[in-house]
């Protein structure tokens, strides 16, 4: 694995802000009350994390699709098929309440690491990809677990 370039690292860390905000408003009722007054109920507590998680898993489908474009033949075909799985996972598993959605998103973010690894091993993802994804996913999973406590 190589060093993560500064721009992707900073953008990935910025992408964690909604997850961290969600967890912080679960852990701090005062912050949640303040946030709800300013932003509305959908943007605090576990709901903020759940909503943003669906956006990010769908976004990751697009990232993986981009990796599939670097492959050829049957590997490319498999890459395209695998790339749509995160978005389909979100579509078919959301519902059944906040707790169930949180569990399904935890499974989705854990599962996407396998897809990340596949594209990385195939040489379609940058050499630093797994280092970034492991770090970011650890924070995401922790924030989602915190959301399950409410």
Structure, explained:
With 150 residues, this protein is mostly helical. The chain has one domain. It contains 8 helices and no strands. The protein has helices at residues 6-15, 17-27, 29-39, 45-68, 73-83, 85-93, 98-121, 129-148. Helix 4 packs antiparallel against helix 5 and helix 7 runs antiparallel to helix 8. The longest helix has 24 residues, at 45-68. The model has no long low-confidence stretch (mean pLDDT 96). The chain crosses the membrane at residues 48-68, 75-92, 98-120, 132-149. Keywords: Membrane, Transmembrane, Transmembrane helix. This is Membrane protein.
Helix content: over 70%
The biggest beta sheet is recorded as: none
Gyration radius (Cα, Å) is: 16 Å
- How far apart, in Å, are the first and last alpha carbons? 38 Å
Strand content range: under 5%
Protein name: Membrane protein
Transmembrane segments: 48-68, 75-92, 98-120, 132-149
Keywords: Membrane, Transmembrane, Transmembrane helix
Organism: Roseovarius atlanticus
Features:
150 residues; mainly alpha; globular
Q: Strands, helices and their partners?
A:
Layout: H1 6-15, H2 17-27, H3 29-39, H4 45-68, H5 73-83, H6 85-93, H7 98-121, H8 129-148
Helix pairs in contact: 2-3, 2-4, 2-8, 4-5, 4-6, 4-7, 4-8, 6-7, 7-8
Transmembrane segments: 48-68, 75-92, 98-120, 132-149
Organism: Roseovarius atlanticus
Pfam families: DUF3429 (PF11911)
Short description:
InterPro entries: DUF3429 (IPR021836). With 150 residues, the protein is mainly alpha-helical.
């Amino acid at each position: 694995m190589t060093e993560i370039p500064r721009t992707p690292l900073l953008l990935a860390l910025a992408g964690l802000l909604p997850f961290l905000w969600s967890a912080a408003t679960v852990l701090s009722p005062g912050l949640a009350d303040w946030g709800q007054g300013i932003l509305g109920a959908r943007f605090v507590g576990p709901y903020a994390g759940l909503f943003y998680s669906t956006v990010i898993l769908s976004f990751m489908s697009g990232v993986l699709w981009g990796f599939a474009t670097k492959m050829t033949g049957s590997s490319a075909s498999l890459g395209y098929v695998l790339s749509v799985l995160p978005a389909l996972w979100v579509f078919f598993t959301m519902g059944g309440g906040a707790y169930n959605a949180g569990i399904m998103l935890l499974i989705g973010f854990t599962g996407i690491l396998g897809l990340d690894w596949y594209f990385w091993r195939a040489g379609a993802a940058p050499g630093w990809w797994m280092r970034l994804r492991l770090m970011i996913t650890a924070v995401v999973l922790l924030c989602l677990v915190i959301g399950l406590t409410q």
